[in-house]
Design a protein that fits this description.
InterPro entries: YdbS-like_PH (IPR005182). It is a single chain. About 50% of the residues lie in helices and about 20% in strands. It is α+β, with helices and mostly antiparallel strands and about 190 residues long. It has one domain: PH-domain like (Roll), CATH 2.30.29. The protein has a three-stranded antiparallel sheet. It has a three-stranded antiparallel sheet with strand order 4-5-6. Strand 2 and strand 3 form a beta hairpin. Helix 1 runs antiparallel to helix 2.
């Protein structure tokens, strides 16, 4: 369990991203450079230099992104900040969390890491999660901690907590008010 109000980084984030770069390098760059060398030695050298420069840049960027990414649990929200050139800061209140999903791709499985995605009420139909963090070695434990915090804020119906219900007179009063508003509008 991670301590409250303390920033921590997704430890395996750069490793996951660098493995992806390595796979991309092997699948795309090696055949491209080999084909260019076979076609012309000068063109092959230029292509090889460009591929190496791009790979070095991606490795640097992944490390810089890992250093910029940090996550923390507060008393009433989860916060995530990241960004190399464009800094972003997301804060999701526990009271708005509706679903927490974990996933683990093949590269993450090799590193024993995973991803955490948080969906919230009122996402306005946007695709994807409101908050997504990759490269977490303890992603399942973080999901449990996040769900515990969310349950503590707004309760869990399966935990047997009672919920407030409107009485018959409250419902009648509300219905009367709606009828008065309707009459005024007509």
């Amino acid at each position: 369990m991670r301590p409250e109000n303390q920033w921590f980084t997704p430890e395996e984030l750069a490793a996951v991203r660098n493995r992806f770069v390595a796979v991309l390098f092997v699948l795309v760059a090696v055949p491209l450079v080999a084909g260019a060398v076979v076609a012309d030695l000068v063109v092959g050298g230029v292509v090889a230099a460009a591929v190496l420069a791009l790979t070095a840049f991606l490795v640097w960027y992944n490390r810089a992104f890992e250093r910029s990414a940090a996550l923390r649990f507060t008393a009433d929200a989860i916060e995530y900040r990241r960004g190399v050139w464009y800094k972003q800061h997301s804060e999701v209140p526990y009271s708005r969390i509706t679903n927490v999903t974990t996933s683990q791709g093949p590269i993450q499985r090799m590193l024993d890491a995973g991803s955490l995605e948080v969906q919230t009420a009122g996402q306005s139909g946007q695709a994807g999660a409101e908050l997504a963090v990759s490269g977490l070695p303890d992603y399942e434990a973080l999901k449990e901690q996040l769900m515990e915090n969310a349950r503590a804020v707004h309760g869990d119906a399966t935990a047997g907590r009672s919920t407030q219900t409107a009485t018959r007179s409250d419902e009648y009063e509300l219905l009367s008010e709606v009828r008065r508003i309707r009459e005024l509008l007509e």
